[in-house]
Amino acid sequence: MKKYLIYINMVLFGLLFYSCNKKELTIIRPDKKLIENQNEYTKILTEAEYGWIGYLFPAGGRAYTFKFNFTNENRVFTSGTLDETYTTTGIESSYRLVADQTPSLSFDTYTYLHLLSDPDELIFGGARGRGHVSDFEFAFLKLNKDTIHLKGNHNGSKLILVKATKDQDKDFIKKSFATYARIGQINDFQHYHKKVRINNQDFSFTISPHINAMSFYYMEGDVFKQKIGIFTTNEHGLLFREPMELAGVSFQEITNFDIVSKQNTGTFKINGEKVKIEPLQKPLYIDKHAPNRFREVNKQFYSRWMFTVNGKHEALSLRELPGYAGGVYLSNVNVDRMDAMYLLYISGMRYVGPVFSTIIDQDGVMKFNKYMEAYGFNPGELISVVRRFNEVWFNEAGYYVFQTGPTDYDLVNAKDSKTWVRFN
């Protein structure tokens, strides 16, 4: 009888427990929640009257600005700052909201975003087999009324969508692309070196629109420091991938560039405060370790213009070489650790240039000792063009080296800051 009563009490307790917890056991199926999110995100994307501004930062570097207009029929119209053609010629493709493990936005037919992921470097640059290591499917991370943060599902690229305003409807991308030319005028100054003053501290800086990078140089005690920001552009200026902090001032945008290159002057604004750009004949700070980093990077460094002199790009008239396509610097080309500077032809099969040894002195100056004046294709009568180049390359003053991007460097004549060359 006792066992029987215990059994009845256990059954009653079980029924009571089930009754009290019935509501707690009612849960929303995960797939139902994903579908609800999918519908919510679709509504947010398509109800933006003037579309969305997209700031894309590929995992492989650089950055681009896009304009997206999404429709209820799963179509999206895209323009971007990849080059001037894409600013005015939009492309229509399809998109879909993927409700997999996490809600994602997929650009599932060919659009400008796919150019950045093309493994053929001849299509749109980047690394062979990887392109710009970008994405065209993005997971939703965070959103509010006007801004959506996403992350690439394959490579982890960063995409920020900002709801466009009426003023950003038609010519926004065209104006954003024009910003590159405006800020690029800083590189037309007579002297390479420039400084700005932020919160009572002096910084020298470089800006490289072709690699979307801006670098600031300064000292902490006796230690040289630099900060590199990857940026894209809008109609007001540039937007960094991550916030910058200099002299206790945090900022993610630089706006209102006003550059007068012929007068070697200019200004821009940080957090609404005007900052004056001052040209310098000598470097404010020197990175003594940069020459070694430059030589040890496993990379073929390319320069489109080669030397800039007195603010004039491609100053040595190398384009007199028929089919000239730019210059390539190679370090450690043989067992003697010699370096080479090749002037390339469009075909890629012909080149001419000097071979030399490199010495780096205690002041951080890199100097070249000529071993062979012209190696490779015989330029014939145009050997005079190569000799003219050699006169500048082998200048006895040597070169300071400044890192301008993740793996990008400028060489600046140590005596005459009017002469410099940019490698990426």
What does this structure look like?
19% of the residues lie in helices and 42% in strands. Strands 4-3-2-1-9-8-7-6-5 form a nine-stranded antiparallel beta sheet, sandwiched between helices. It has an eight-stranded antiparallel beta barrel with strand order 10-11-12-13-14-15-16-17. A five-stranded antiparallel beta sheet has the order 18-20-21-22-23. It is α+β, with helices and mostly antiparallel strands and 424 residues long. A hairpin with a 4-residue loop joins strand 2 (64-70) and strand 3. It contains eight helices and 26 strands. It is globular, with a radius of gyration of 28 Å. It has helices at residues 2-20, 30-46, 84-88, 112-115, 121-124, 172-184, 290-296, 383-393; strands at residues 52-57, 64-70, 75-80, 91-94, 96-99, 103-106, 137-143, 147-152, 158-163, 193-198, 201-208, 213-220, 223-233, 237-246, 249-260, 265-270, 273-280, 301-303, 307-309, 324-330, 339-345, 351-360, 366-376, 399-405, 408-413, 419-423. Mean pLDDT is 88; it is low at 1-29.
